[in-house]
Amino acid sequence: MSVGGVRQAGAADIRRWRQYLADEQAEAAVYRDLAARRTGEEREILLALAEAEGRHEAHWRDLLGDQAGAPRRGAMHTRFLGLLARRFGSVFVLALAQRAESRSPYDNDADATSTMAADERIHEEVVRGLAARGRLRLAGTFRAAVFGVNDGLVSNLALVLGIGATGVPATTILFTGLAGLLAGALSMGAGEYVSVRSQRELLEASTPIPATRTVLSHLDLAANELTLVYRAQGMTVERAEVHAREVLRTVAIATGPVDLASPGELAPSDDEHQAIGTGLGAATSSFCFFASGAVLPVLPYLFGLSGPAAIIVAAVLVGLALLATGAIVGLLSGGPPLRRALRQLVIGFGAAGVTYLLGLMFGSVA
């Protein structure tokens, strides 16, 4: 029941409302901090999210009335998110904010309005959209980096364990690991360069040549072969004819530049080129990250360890790295970081375990 417009509630309710109030204040601060590091439309969207969190804050203030008490601190994960937002403001922070919005308790709390619960669902999608922009910008080089470091970790750990299980001296394992590092890094770099360059060349081959625009004014209007261009790009006959007439009318009155690409059809956009990245950037990322992953299994042997001790240290180092890369991929993809980290660990150790067993078999035969 309520007295004077303010709900009278038990101590547990008051504590819960106060925590909600603190969390809404902290979340609004996160969005303001993220907005401070952005400009244009993204800044406006983030400030609008902060304003929405302010409306939720007002709801809990109204329920609490004079029982709001002293300001409280938000939940630990929200305060950590705020710290990251103030220091970095990157796509990683947006990915964390996306997961935080997905865990809203308002769906199952009778004291939260249905509008507030709906807001939180929509906020998750808004943040997902903002994070997707950052993921698109990262996609090219980040893909090469993640693949590179994981390939380096797993392939060189498998190589070191497999060779080590045969019982050869530690120096042989060390030089084998270093050779695997260099060979793998060079192979990854070269392969990624060829892959990205080929993909960009395919996109460029599908982009209309700008110089072709200069001949549009000389086309036979009756034949209108420009229609064939748009039909080849995937338009229907009727739509191609309409669009061709619009383009030729634009040329006739010289209202501005004309794009031969059909709207919303097959022509590659600048974003697609950015998402793929450059061949040199992808190759450099692959080389460096493969090498940084591949060096970890070799470190124990570089520092003079040998036998089971070296194998255990190498496995621990690689395991920690696999957990870290899996968690990062999980965060960026909006998935559960722990699950992705464990999946990465199981796959990596599974591959290395197979080669270790094979090494034991070959060593016993020898």
Q: Could you please describe the fold and organization of this structure?
A:
It is a single chain. It contains 13 helices and two strands; from the N terminus they run E-E-H-H-H-H-H-H-H-H-H-H-H-H-H. Helix 1 (11-36) runs antiparallel to helix 2 and helix 5 (114-164) crosses helix 6 (170-205). It is flat and about 75 Å long. The chain has helices at residues 11-36, 40-64, 76-87, 91-102, 114-164, 170-205, 226-232, 237-253, 270-276, 279-294, 299-302, 307-333, 337-365, and strands spanning 2-3, 6-7. It has a two-stranded antiparallel ribbon with strand order 1-2. It is an all-alpha fold and 366 residues long. Strand 1 and strand 2 (6-7) form a beta hairpin.
Number of strands: 2
The percentage of residues in β strands lies in: under 5%
Strand-pairing-aware structural class: mainly alpha
Query: Main sheet, how many strands, which sense, barrel?
Result: 2 strands, antiparallel
* Radius of gyration, in angstroms, nearest whole number: 29 Å
The H/E string reads EEHHHHHHHHHHHHH
Basic shape: flat
Major sheet: order of its strands? 1-2
| Mean pLDDT across residues | 78
Cα distance, first to last residue?
A: 83 Å
Helix content: over 70%
Name the poorly predicted regions. Answer: 1-7, 264-270
Helix run count? 13
